[in-house]
C-alpha cells in the first residue's frame, strides 16, 4: 500500500490557548505522526505503529468520508491526537485500526493474530454492535454506550481512543447535514464532554464543549467569542500587571514559580453567565492567573503572599487540594480585588497537579508515574466500579444510559461519614443518596439519618460539610416514592432493581394462589409432584417453576389453561369443588388489579381492560384514562362485581377546610370512627385561611364511602368534600 500524503486536520499542541476557534485544516503525512512518536517511543514500537497504518490503509482502501477525503485520514488524525498526549504504542495502533471491525470485513481474530490481544481488545471496545437487531435507534445507542463503558472498565485506554475519535469527528462536522450536526453535537454535549471532564481531561473537555456549543447555538457562540476578543486587549493589560507584580514578589521571597495568564473557554463563560444570571459585561473572571509551584507547602505559602498583595473577595476561596474534585483535580482557587480594583481569579497548584488537570487519566502515559497508580487512575477506577454496579442493576440499556447521564453532571458537595471519610455527591443529593453511596444494602434498609445529633428524613437535601450518620432497620425496604428522593444513578438503579425483584416476588405469590384455585376447581391436588412440574414446564417451554407462576400472576397465562394441562387423557369428569368468592365476576383464574386513576369500589359500574404484564385492570365505566389506554375494542372485557364481594378497597376523597389548629387530627379520627383506615394523606395550603386535604382511605363499598363523606361534611371546619377521581 503506498505511503503518500494524507490530508487531515492537524490540531495544535495541547498547551495552545483554549477558547480559540478549532485548528485550521492542513496537510499531514504519515511521517508527521512518526515524527511525534519518535520523540517518546522506541524504534521497535514506532515500527509496530507503522505496520498498523499499512494494515488500516489497506483495509479502508477505496472508502471515503463525507468530506471527500480518503477514509484513512480519520483514524490517522485520531492517532495524532493521542500521540500529542504521549499515549503508548498499542493505543496509537488501535486508534489507526479503530474502524476496521466496524466498517470493513476485518475480524477481531485477525487483529489479535497480527497485532496482539491488547490492540484487538481496544479496537473491539470502541466498535459499535451492528450484528444485533435493536428495537430502536435509542436502544442501539444505549447498548453501544454500555458495551464501550464495560470495555473501558477493563482498559481505560478504550475511552481515550473514543474521545479522540469524537474530537476529530467534531472538528470535521461541517461536511454533514444540519440535522446530523445537531444530533452529534447534542450527543457529544450530553455524554462525551462530561465523560472527558469526569476523567479529569480538561483540555479535551473544553474543546468538546466549545465545538458542541458552536454547532448547537452558533449565534450565541459567535456573540460571546466576539465579546471576549473585544475585551482581551484591555483585560490582558490588567492580568499582565498583576502577573508581573506576583512574579516579582515570589522571586524576592525565593519561591520558584511559573505565573501565566489564562482565558476561560467560550462555553464555560456562557455557563457562568447562565448560572449567575448576569450579562457578559459583569463577568469578572474570564481572564485569570495560574501559579505553578513545586510543592504543596509552597501552594499555601503563595496563597498567603497574594492575599497580602491583594484583598481576597469574601466567600470566593476553594481548597481543592485538601478535598480534590471527583475526577482527581487539585488546585487552590481564590478571587482577588486586583490592579485598578478589578476582580481577578487566581489558581495555585503544583507541577504534578497541573499535569493531572490538563491530561487527567492520560497523564499516566504522558508523564511516567513513580510506581503505583496516579490519583486520576484511582478516582477513574472508583467511578467505573460504581458504573458497573449501576449497569448490573439497570433493567435495560436505556435505563443505564439515563443513570449515566445523571451521574455525568455533578456540581459536587462534600459530606463526611461518622468516621470522617469524605463522600462526594452531586449537588441536590439527599440523605438517601448518601446511604446508597455508602453501600446498596444500607440504602435499601435506610429509615433516616442524623446530621450531628439532629434527626433528618430520607429526602433531606445535604449541604457541604455535613457529618451524616445513617439509621437503618432490617424491616425497612424501598418504595416507589424513594425514586423522587434521589438524584444519583447508583441510588436510582438500586431502588428500581429492588422494586422489580419485589414485583416479581409478588407475581409468583399471586400466581401460586391462582394456580392452586384452578387446580382445586378441576379436582386436582395442589401438591404437585416434581415429575408433574417438570413435564408441565417442558409442555409450556419454561425453564423454572417460579417463572411459570410469575407468568400466571402477571396475567400472561390463564391459570385454568395451565391446570387443564395436568388432567389425565382419560377424560374423567371434573370434580366440582367450592372455592372462595372472587371480588370480580368474569375474570376467574386471571390476575386482577384496580386502576389508580379512578379507584373503583363495589357499587361502581365497572369494566375490565386487558394489560400485558398486569392482567386485567378494573376501571369505572366513566374513567377517561382507561379510554385513552385501550388500543382496541378487543382489549375490553365485560366484568361485574361479585354478589358476595368482601374486602377493603381504596378510594380518594378531597376536602377543602379552614386552617384551624388540630383540624387534620379531628378529621382523621372521624374517618377511623367509621371503620376506615387512611392509607395516605396530602395537605396543600391554598392561602392563609384555607387548605386542601386529600385522603386515600379504605372502604367496603359505595354506601360505606357515602357515610364517611356525610360525617365529614357535617364538620364546621369542612367547606366542601367530594370523592376525587384521577
Structural write-up:
- This protein folds into six domains: 6-216, Hypothetical protein af1432, CATH 1.10.3210.10; 219-364, Beta Polymerase, domain 2; 410-487, Ubiquitin-like (UB roll) (Roll), CATH 3.10.20; 492-573, no CATH class; 582-646, no CATH class; 649-724, Alpha-Beta Plaits (2-Layer Sandwich).
- It is α+β, with helices and mostly antiparallel strands.
- Strands 3, 4, 5, 6, 7 and 8 form a six-stranded mixed beta sheet that branches.
- It has 27 helices and 23 strands.
- The chain starts with 5 loop residues before the first strand and ends with a strand.
Describe the SSE topology.
Blueprint: E1 6-9, E2 25-28, H1 30-37, H2 43-59, H3 73-84, H4 89-96, H5 100-103, H6 108-115, H7 117-126, H8 137-154, H9 157-171, H10 178-198, H11 202-216, H12 218-253, E3 258-263, H13 266-276, E4 287-293, H14 296-309, E5 311-312, E6 318-319, E7 332-337, E8 343-350, H15 351-359, H16 363-366, H17 375-393, H18 397-407, E9 412-416, E10 422-426, H19 431-438, H20 440-444, E11 446-451, E12 454-456, E13 468-472, H21 489-521, H22 530-539, H23 545-553, H24 559-564, E14 584-585, E15 592-594, E16 606-611, E17 615-620, H25 624-629, E18 636-637, E19 640-641, E20 649-658, H26 663-673, E21 678-685, E22 690-699, H27 702-713, E23 718-724
Parallel strand pairs: 4-8, 15-17
Antiparallel strand pairs: 1-2, 3-4, 5-7, 6-7, 7-8, 9-10, 11-12, 11-13, 14-19, 16-17, 16-18, 20-22, 20-23, 21-22
Helix pairs in contact: 1-3, 2-4, 3-4, 3-9, 4-7, 4-9, 6-7, 7-8, 7-9, 8-17, 8-18, 9-11, 10-11, 11-12, 12-13, 17-21, 18-21, 21-23
Amino acid at each position: 500500500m503506498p505511503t503518500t500524503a494524507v490530508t487531515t486536520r492537524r490540531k495544535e499542541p495541547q498547551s495552545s490557548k483554549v477558547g480559540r476557534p478549532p485548528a485550521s485544516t492542513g496537510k499531514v503525512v504519515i511521517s508527521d505522526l512518526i515524527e511525534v512518536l519518535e520523540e517518546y517511543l522506541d524504534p521497535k514500537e514506532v515500527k509496530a505503529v507503522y505496520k498498523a497504518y499499512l494494515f488500516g490503509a489497506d483495509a479502508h482502501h477505496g472508502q471515503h468520508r463525507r468530506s471527500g477525503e480518503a477514509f484513512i485520514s480519520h483514524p490517522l488524525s485520531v492517532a495524532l491526537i493521542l500521540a500529542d498526549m504521549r499515549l503508548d504504542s498499542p493505543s496509537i495502533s488501535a486508534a489507526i485500526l479503530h474502524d476496521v471491525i466496524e466498517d470493513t470485513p476485518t475480524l477481531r481474530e485477525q487483529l489479535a493474530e497480527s497485532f496482539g490481544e491488547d490492540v484487538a481488545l481496544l479496537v473491539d471496545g470502541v466498535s459499535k454492535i451492528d450484528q444485533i437487531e435493536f428495537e430502536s435507534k435509542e436502544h442501539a445507542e444505549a447498548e453501544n454506550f454500555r458495551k464501550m463503558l464495560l470495555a473501558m472498565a477493563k482498559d481505560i485506554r478504550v475511552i481515550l481512543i473514543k474521545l479522540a475519535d469524537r474530537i476529530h469527528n467534531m472538528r470535521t462536522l461541517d461536511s454533514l447535514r444540519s440535522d446530523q450536526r445537531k444530533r452529534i453535537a447534542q450527543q457529544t454535549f450530553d455524554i462525551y464532554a462530561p465523560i472527558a471532564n469526569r476523567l479529569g481531561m480538561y483540555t479535551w473537555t473544553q474543546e468538546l464543549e466549545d465545538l458542541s456549543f458552536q454547532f448547537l447555538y452558533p449565534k450565541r457562540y459567535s456573540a460571546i467569542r466576539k465579546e471576549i476578543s473585544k475585551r482581551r486587549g484591555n483585560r490582558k493589560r490588567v492580568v499582565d500587571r498583576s502577573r508581573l507584580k506576583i512574579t516579582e514578589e515570589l522571586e524576592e521571597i525565593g519561591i520558584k514559580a511559573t505565573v501565566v495568564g489564562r482565558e476561560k473557554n467560550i462555553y464555560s463563560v456562557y455557563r457562568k453567565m447562565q448560572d449567575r444570571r448576569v450579562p457578559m459585561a459583569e463577568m469578572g473572571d474570564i481572564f485569570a492567573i495560574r501559579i505553578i509551584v513545586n510543592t504543596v507547602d509552597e501552594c499555601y505559602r503563595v496563597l498567603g503572599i497574594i492575599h497580602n498583595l491583594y484583598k481576597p473577595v469574601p466567600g470566593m476561596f476553594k481548597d481543592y487540594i485538601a478535598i480534590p474534585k471527583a475526577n482527581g483535580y487539585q488546585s487552590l482557587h481564590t478571587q482577588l480585588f486586583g490592579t485598578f480594583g478589578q476582580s481577578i481569579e487566581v489558581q495555585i497548584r503544583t507541577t504534578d497537579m497541573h499535569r493531572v488537570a490538563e491530561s487527567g487519566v492520560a497523564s499516566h502515559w504522558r508523564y511516567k508515574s513513580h510506581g503505583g497508580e496516579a490519583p486520576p487512575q484511582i478516582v477513574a477506577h472508583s467511578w467505573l466500579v460504581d458504573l458497573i454496579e449501576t449497569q448490573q442493576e439497570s433493567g435495560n440499556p436505556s435505563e443505564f444510559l439515563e443513570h449515566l447521564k445523571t451521574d455525568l453532571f455533578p456540581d459536587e458537595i462534600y459530606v463526611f461519614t461518622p468516621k470522617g471519610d469524605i463522600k462526594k455527591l452531586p449537588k441536590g443529593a439527599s440523605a438517601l443518596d448518601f446511604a446508597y453511596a455508602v453501600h446498596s444494602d444500607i440504602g435499601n434498609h435506610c429509615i433516616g439519618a442524623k446530621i450531628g445529633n439532629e434527626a433528618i428524613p430520607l429526602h433531606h437535601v445535604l449541604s457541604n460539610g455535613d457529618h451524616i450518620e445513617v439509621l437503618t432497620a432490617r424491616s425497612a425496604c424501598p418504595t416507589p416514592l424513594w425514586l423522587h428522593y434521589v438524584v444519583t444513578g447508583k441510588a436510582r438503579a438500586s431502588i428500581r432493581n429492588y422494586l422489580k425483584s419485589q414485583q416479581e416476588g409478588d407475581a409468583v405469590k399471586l400466581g401460586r394462589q391462582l394456580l392452586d384455585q384452578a387446580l382445586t376447581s378441576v379436582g386436582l391436588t395442589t401438591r404437585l409432584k416434581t415429575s408433574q412440574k417438570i413435564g408441565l414446564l417442558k409442555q409450556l417451554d419454561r425453564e423454572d417453576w417460579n417463572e411459570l407462576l410469575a407468568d400466571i400472576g402477571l396475567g400472561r397465562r390463564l391459570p385454568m389453561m395451565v391446570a387443564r394441562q395436568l388432567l389425565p387423557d382419560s377424560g374423567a369428569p371434573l370434580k366440582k369443588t367450592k372455592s372462595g368468592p372472587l371480588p370480580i365476576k368474569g375474570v376467574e383464574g386471571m390476575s386482577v388489579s384496580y386502576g389508580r386513576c379512578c379507584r373503583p369500589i363495589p357499587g361502581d359500574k365497572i369494566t375490565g381492560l386487558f394489560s400485558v404484564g398486569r392482567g386485567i385492570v378494573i376501571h369505572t365505566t366513566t374513567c377517561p384514562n382507561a379510554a385513552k389506554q385501550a388500543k382496541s375494542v378487543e382489549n375490553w372485557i365485560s366484568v361485574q362485581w361479585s354478589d358476595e364481594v368482601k374486602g377493603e378497597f381504596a378510594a380518594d376523597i378531597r376536602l377543602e377546610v379552614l386552617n384551624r389548629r388540630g383540624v387534620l387530627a379531628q378529621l382523621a379520627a372521624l374517618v377511623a370512627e367509621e371503620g376506615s383506615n387512611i392509607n395516605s394523606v396530602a395537605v396543600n395550603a391554598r392561602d392563609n385561611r384555607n387548605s386542601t386535604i386529600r385522603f386515600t382511605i379504605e372502604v367496603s363499598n359505595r354506601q360505606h364511602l357515602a357515610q364517611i363523606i356525610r360525617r365529614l361534611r357535617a364538620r364546621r371546619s369542612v367547606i366542601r368534600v367530594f370523592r376525587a377521581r384521577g
